Amino acid sequence: MPSFDFSSKVDLQTLDNAVNTIHKEITNRFDFKGSHVVIDLNKKEYKVNLEADSEMKLGQIRDVMITRSMKQGLAAEIYDFTKEPHQSGKVVKQEVIVRNGIKQEDAKKIVKMIKDSGYKVQAAIMDDIIRVTGKKIDDLQEVIQASKSWNLGIALQVVNMKS
């Protein structure tokens, strides 16, 4: 039976390269000369810690983060900017969580969207991936096409396609 998996994995080495590129670009920018800037990747917890002199500079760092990461092949949706920046002395700090894997509630939404769409496929949650199986490979391809229009806020990848 043909099947494929939806996953949302972030390659740690690519993420590390992107963070290094972001740090290099920010430190070389004229408007950041002499400013306090920290961009630190916590590889174990998949978090990026940002520090800057002001809220405006922190916003510029977030913009550079998104554009540089996309050029490295990472989706913009991997960054979770929901934690508010907070003042700590003279600097503004923000913790950015990197989404790695599909959370249980997001997986349930995806399975519900697949079932509500009326395609002749079955979807099952397996840890942090979703396995979709069907009788015909054309049905699976229709689900993949439909998934591109879903606005879930997570970066979905189609992996492990078997026919």
Supply the key terms:
alpha+beta, 4-stranded antiparallel sheet, 163 residues, 36% helix, 4 helices, 5-stranded antiparallel sheet
Describe this structure as you would to a colleague.
- The relative contact order is 0.22.
- The model has no long low-confidence stretch (mean pLDDT 90).
- The protein contains four helices and nine strands; from the N terminus they run βαββαβββαββαβ.
- Strands 2, 3, 4, 5 and 6 form a five-stranded antiparallel beta sheet that branches. A four-stranded antiparallel beta sheet has the order 7-8-1-9, with helices on one face.
- The chain is elongated, with a radius of gyration of 19 Å.
- By secondary structure, the chain is an alpha+beta fold.
Radius of gyration: 19 Å
Largest sheet, strands/sense/barrel? 5 strands, antiparallel
- Beta-strand portion reads 25-35%
Instruction: State the helical fraction.
Output: 25-40%
Low confidence ranges:
none
Whole-number mean pLDDT: 90
Give the number of helices: 4
- Helix and strand content put the structural class at alpha+beta
Shape: elongated
Distance between the termini: 7 Å
Number of strands: 9
Order of helices and strands: EHEEHEEEHEEHE
